[in-house]
Known about the structure:
The protein has 178 residues and is of the alpha+beta class. The protein has four helices and twelve strands.
Amino acid sequence: MEFDSGRFRQVMGRFATGVTVVTTLEGGRPAGITVNALSSVSLQPPLVMVALDRRRFITPMVRALGRYAVNVLGEGQQALSDCFAHADVTPGRKDFCGAAWHPGSDGLPLLDGAIATLECTVVETFSAGDHDLFIGRVDTLDDGGRDAEAIGPLLYFRRRYLRIERGADAPVKGKPED
Ligand SMILES: Cc1cc2nc3c(=O)[nH]c(=O)nc-3n(C[C@H](O)[C@H](O)[C@H](O)COP(=O)(O)OP(=O)(O)OC[C@H]3O[C@@H](n4cnc5c(N)ncnc54)[C@H](O)[C@@H]3O)c2cc1C
């Protein structure tokens, strides 16, 4: 291997992603962490995957509860992304970043203002290198309705945040998924 992990991160940083906060419960209290390693895995059944470093404080909590929620952040939620990535801010992550939230229909903590949320039950866990891959069956989901339609996503690219300037968009000409 002729590159180090810094170079790997630099190159993977060319792949633009959204930003999510993965939340769960420990002892009935909400906990959350910033995650961009999210993927849609299967349509039937609906499955997603989040990859959590095993050193993350939340990884054993997700393993223990067997459930997590994905909160897709909107362009105005950069401060929450930083806080849930353990920035030195007050209120801090141990106080759930002072975020406004509500319990979803399955009881998981959902962030107010997220542009999409999914509540998931872990159906499989894979260990891959230094991360655990949690495959979650999507039990409930919400796209924020009409209020969220006008809100763009918070993006992460080259290890910086980006917002979309909606100057142009284009239809996809490739074969859409069924
Ligand atoms: C845009 C973005 C995307 C990211 N995507 C991912 C991703 O996909 N996957 C991923 O794994 N990481 C991702 N991260 C990194 C992750 O969000 C941070 O590294 C993480 O929040 C740091 O927290 P930590 O607890 O793991 O480690 P530290 O903050 O270094 O904490 C060290 C130790 O302190 C203890 N600790 C800290 N907080 C608590 C607490 N509230 N309760 C109990 N014990 C605690 C734990 O023992 C923990 O291991 C991303 C970060 C950003 C900014």
